[in-house]
Structure prediction request, 600 residues.
Amino acid sequence: MDKNLWRWIELNEYETPSVPTTMLAKRWWQKMLQTLRPSRVEVSTANSAEEEPKGVEFKFDEQPLLDSLNTLLDQQNQDDPRVTWLVLAPASPAWSVIRKWANQNGWQPVSMPQRDSLLTSSSVDELNIPSEPWVVDDLSHGFVRHPLGIRWLQNFLRKTLQTPQSPGLVICGSWLYYYLEKTHGGLNRQALTLRPFDTESMVTSRIAVSRAHAKRLVAVSEGHPGIAAAYRNAFAVAAEQTEIVLEMPQVPTAHGETSTFVIYALLLHGGLSTFLLGEVLNSIAPNLIEHSLNLLRSHGIVRYQDDQWSVTELGYPAAKQFLAQRDFNWTSC
Amino acid sequence: MDTQKISDLFKTVDSNAALQVVAIILIAWLIVFLSQRLLPRLANLLHSKQRLYTLALIPLIRLVVVIVALVMLVPIFIEPTLKNMVAALGALGLAIGFAIKDYVSSLIAGVVAIHEMPYRPGDWVTIDGVYGEVTHIGLRTVELVTPDDTVVAMPHEKIWQHAVLNANNGGPSLMCVAEFFLTPESDGLVVKEALEQIALTSPYLQIHKPVVVTVNDEPWGTRYRLKAYPVDPRQQFKFITDLSLRGKQRLLDLKIEFAKVETAKVN
Prediction:
């Protein structure tokens, strides 16, 4: 397998891979049809992520990703107390691998408050940054977009702005990072992300079974390997197949404003419980939120699992396009 | 100018020419009618800049259609020589000067408004004390819909006399302000941080734009103004309500006292 498959790049170097014009035209046409028929709310025929995947499930080989982390972070001298931000897209395979890497290399997890307690406690929990290399394995766990739920994160940003005693690693979702960058005056930190997969990478990593399949996967996933893998698992494709259809779920345009808020809140937090979603969107009527969630679930855009609402891997590209169409605080990463 | 001279200006209109006139007027009317019906519908399905650009096309299309139609109609009635045109315009000027001065003033102001763009469909403007969204730019009037859903037909000629205050100026950025009136003893830094947190956690917030809190000391206390931008200008009232309600609640939770203004003392 290509060693350069998993390469960490500066966040500002991130570029979405180009998509063939025919696919862009098809996507534009679908968007136009949906725009001109806004009342259409029938359930999409696309497989929802809650359905069982068919055939042999594709799984990423973790070793090359672990090696890429070794290369990236071993260069970082233990005496250099730099804080490195790793910005990951939803469903990126790197989420679990980085946790594993930090565990293997003895980087201490920073203790984080329980999300629910962020809204109930009157004072912010004491934040202790360990004196040895440390890791925050998902920054969104210390954040709820609520006047009380933002305090721990602001405290954390203040503390890490001062030079800490030891090197640190902050794993942050791309949507949260973009939000923080815009709302907290530019984070001005060393932020890295994984290079997106192009057609070549899709083939090399064996996510795609053929070049034609790889092109389709790049177009639908915009180069996110986790999303591409989800599409590969949801739609069985044979190597010799030339006519490949990867049907994306569509975000229903009914209740557009509420759906926009719901989708953005779920992406920003990497999933939320019903209670916390209600708190984050407390200016929206609860019945509207519930209706929107059910509608989005029936279209395969969101799922409810372990008391958490989150955007599905198959629904992510459509959800992102939906927010981009509305200029709604979206990120290309 | 005697009657004979005026009648000499005009050509004899035969049935063929009459048909041409009817056809030109019908086609022009149809294009204008369709653009006024279809484009707003299409615009309402779009968002952000796409919506504003689509709405801005409507008056432009109408202006182009009217000019083209006039250019095609005039030679049917008048032989377009210099002498004839001067005579016709002179007669027209006389009629305008006496009878329909205000109407024509509004029409000309409408053309100027399309060129200078002090307002475009989708803009939020204040004209002569009326605040609302520009929903339609007609030949003579501009239609505003106020926050209370009242349609106001404002003659274009207002732009000669009155300032036009445009809150978003053709773009999707519209600043909203929520005001809080507190006692002068309140801790300004705590209030400022709390209000900033309120704006940063509003679902309506456009995160690409800054959140600013300004403070003014007044004889009755301190006025805090929380300034931020919604994602869509149409959400401005919901956004201000959200900022005001959650802001008040947060300040009450922080045990910050609101100023109680006694009107008699202020006056």
